[in-house]
Amino acid sequence: MFVTTHWSVVLAAGRNDTTRAHDALAELCETYWYPLYAYIRQRGYSPHDAQDLTQEFFARLLEKNTLGIITQDKGRFRSFLLSALNHFLVDEWKKARAQKRGGGQIVSLDVCDGERRFVREPMDALTPEKLYEQNWALALLETVYSQLHREYEGAGKGALFTELKSCLTGTRHSVRYAELAVRLNMAENTVKTTVHRLRQRYRELLRAEVAHTVASPADVEEELRCLFRALAGI
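^ thats the sequence. predicted structure below, dont judge the formating
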């Protein structure tokens, strides 16, 4: 099953620029555009230039035959993307500025939201690389949270999720099960079991999302460790 994850599909495509691999790469880019945008802004570019650079970068990345240069030694999608972006900024942007762009947006960027998020970043404390790592981790967790929320909504348990979502953070001992039991009109042991299942499903979705961004199952644990190290600095 692992070979069906997004980054593995892209890597497995090799020089065969398949539609499936292109779509997998496009979905990854759609999910993780903000860490790149914030990285470019942190490098000193204006909001307008950062938007243009991000779009142009994704256009280059997703254009036909680009998959041929993405090989197995690129490892994790997170690392590949930052390396490719730096190469683009240094070697290709001057040429890109002189060319007429076409085709409109490549990836949907909510730049107003991006700027609102960017102005809250702790600029003095973080290098662009550290900021990128933190925003990558937050984007991944937000994706997992949204997936879990949709699952509960689809099962008709949206209200239950709203009550229990705070249990996804903090320690097991910090959850006030008795208070939740009263609010939900459930037995306390039932609430504990429900919270346990919620957290278990969250962990499953987290591992699955991380797997989408690495080359092999052996990379998942190390990528999770990198994720938590980045979050520890927030």
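The chain has a mean pLDDT of 84.
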